Known about the structure:
The chain is of the alpha/beta class. The chain is built from three helices and three strands, in the order H-E-H-E-H-E. It has helices spanning 8-18, 34-41, 58-66; strands at residues 22-26, 48-53, 71-74. The protein has a three-stranded parallel beta sheet with strand order 1-2-3, with helices on one face.
Amino acid sequence: MAGEARNGEEGLEKIIELQPDVVLSDIMMPKLSGLEMIRKAQEFARFKSVILTSYAEFEYAREAIELKAYQYVMKPVDM
Length: 79
């Protein structure tokens, strides 16, 4: 089952409700950042996270590593 959210708070609710295997998230989102959303969601669900971002700051990558993100992808993504 797939879900979609407009902000981090909705994303957290969807993760808790749907218990997904994979969560794709941007870092910068309204109400709750993607990293905060993942950190909180890990208390309620087990999933792999893929972080998409256009921010190259090491601090974001470090935090993603701490959250055991499966992948940290820089935008734009070239398939």
